[in-house]
Amino acid sequence: MASCPGSTTRFRRDATSESIINAIFALNHSVADTEYTRRTLVVRLEADRSIREQLTDTVVEWKRGYQLAVERAWGVCYTRSDVQQLAYDEVRARTDLGSQHAVLATHQAAEAIKEYVDAPGDDWPARPEFSTPPVSYDTRTMTLFEDGAVSLTTTGRRVRCRLSLPSESPSYPERYLESDEWESAKSTLRYRDGDFYLYVGFRKPKPAVEPPSDDATVLGVNLGVETLAVTSTARFFPIGELNHRWREFTDRREGLVETDTRSARRTLTEARARFDRHARNRLHVVANGVVAEATAYQCDVVAFGDLDAVVETLPTATEFTEWAFETLYEFVSYKAAERGVAVVQVNPEYTTQRCTECGFTHPQNRDLERNHFTCLKCGHQQHDGYNAAKNVAFRCIRRGPLSSSGVGATYCALQSGRVTPDGELVPHPKTVSADAGRNG
Predict the structure, then answer these.
(1) Are residues 304 and 220 in the same domain?
(2) Is 98 left (phi over 0), alpha (psi -120 to 50) or beta?
(3) Structural domain of residue 316, as residue ranges?
(4) Among the residues of 119-233, which ranges form H helices?
(5) Cα dist. 22→45, 189, 330, 386, 392 in Å?
(6) Which helix (H) or strand (E) holds 369?
(7) Contact in structure between 37 and 197 (CB atoms under 8 Å)
(8) Taking a C-beta distance cutoff of 8 angstroms, is the pair 358, 379 a contact?
């Protein structure tokens, strides 16, 4: 229940549907929260002048506390516990933040520093700076009430205001606000375009995925530099637009690094955040497409090649390529789990060189410049990524020529039907749409 314990949440509705900026965002990507699926509901706050002043003061003090923690920890540490131990006393002494908000400020600073450490590309040589970082709230500093109000801790008194929701009923946000499955979690307060918005976090335990049966069907996924993902059902997800944006960002980054002023550092921080948001949104679209393909073709397993091994086989792969692979795999994993589909990684050795028709394996079967596969033995031709995706799926099948002890499956999912490594094809039932997954 997304409210106080024992309460039944009912939220006041009004006609301001535009107040819902983006009803649902993505999974919170914290490694520490791998047991939960997360969502974020974005809602405008109905705040009078007095409340707005309290919230504004809190944002100002939060920025000071956050930046103090970054300055103290930059180049020293970036785990939450270490940054808290290092910077908490100074944040409490030099700001008006309460004890719990001081803790949360040090945690947010740790997350920001870690993002810089983990970000693809060269690290920025100076500490991150933000004009208005979001204020973090947890269950100690935020309470959702059954009358549609929210109580927030500020630097002064605790304030209470309403969440502005659309008038239609039942509204999409109510799926989370009134759900028995989802509970409130870490949230953030942001100021934008003259209004305050609360990014209300929700979470629920990830569903348990049953081990696949011996007659399971596997959807193979091959990852690449030019085509991000190709499935064994012949669905292609290009990455050209993201690669282009990454090159634009890196070119701009070089100029800003050379300028090396406070304004340049802030501009780079904002540019990196914009690129990260865009890239993650696009990867969510791809992940949704992969999971939709698995669902449409009634697959029990989605198989990727081992990510580290795949990157090693791609001579033109960049740090961004590696980050995109890892992020896509993470997104597919949690989205598939919600549908009871397992996601695994298998040994990708020779999957790009082996012919799926006759089994002949040779490096020259593959034309890297044309992304084309032509078997030197039987003459079979097709897109090299599509050929590799089928081989990745076969790696999950114990009794196949590319046997694996990892997953006991029988079939590889193709657009035309389910096939065994021996070539036995079982046509898909009529319930599977011939156009499943063709768009996107």
Answers:
(1) yes
(2) beta
(3) 216-427
(4) 174-177
(5) 14, 15, 22, 35, 36
(6) none
(7) no
(8) no
Cis peptide before 170 (omega within 30 of 0): yes
Sheet holding 372-374, edge to edge: 366-367, 372-374, 381-383
Name the residue type at position 412.
C
Cα-Cα-Cα-Cα dihedral sign, residues 333, 308, 252, 226: negative
Q: For residue 229, which of 315, 309, 288 has the smallest C-alpha distance?
A: 288
Smallest CA-to-CA distance from 328 within 276, 274, 288, 384 is with: 288
Rg (CA), the chain: 25
List % helix, strand, coil for the chain (3-state, nearest 5): 35, 20, 40
- Say if 229 falls within a structural domain: yes
Euclidean distance between CA atoms 109 and 78, whole angstroms? 8
CA distance 6 to 183: 12
H and E: helices and strands count for the chain: 9, 18
**Does 366 share its domain with 255?**
yes
Answer for the pair 293, 302: CB distance below 8 angstroms, yes or no: no
Blockwise average pLDDT, block size 10, the chain, 440 residues: 30 32 31 65 92 95 94 90 95 96 94 74 56 88 84 95 78 73 89 90 79 81 93 94 91 84 81 88 95 94 92 87 93 90 90 86 81 86 90 74 53 88 78 52
Whole-prediction pTM: 0.68
CB burial string 231-246: b at 16+ within 10 A, e below: bbbbbbbebeebbebb
| The total number of structural domains that make up the chain | 2
Q: Angle at CA 190, nearest 5°, toward 185 and 192?
A: 150
Helix (H) or strand (E) holding 88, with range, is: helix 80-94
Half-sphere exposure of 180 (CA within 13 A, CB side): 1
Examine the fold and report which residue of 174, 205, 236 is the final residue of a domain before the chain moves on.
Answer: 205
Question: How far is the C-alpha of 296 from the C-alpha of 292, rounded, in Å?
Answer: 6
| Among candidate residues 285, 299, 282, the one with its CA nearest the CA of residue 233 | 299
CA 173 to each of CA 52, 134, 162, 253, 350: distance values in angstroms, whole numbers, following the listed order: 24, 21, 14, 38, 47
Considering 172, 205, 238, which residue would you say is the last residue of a domain? 205
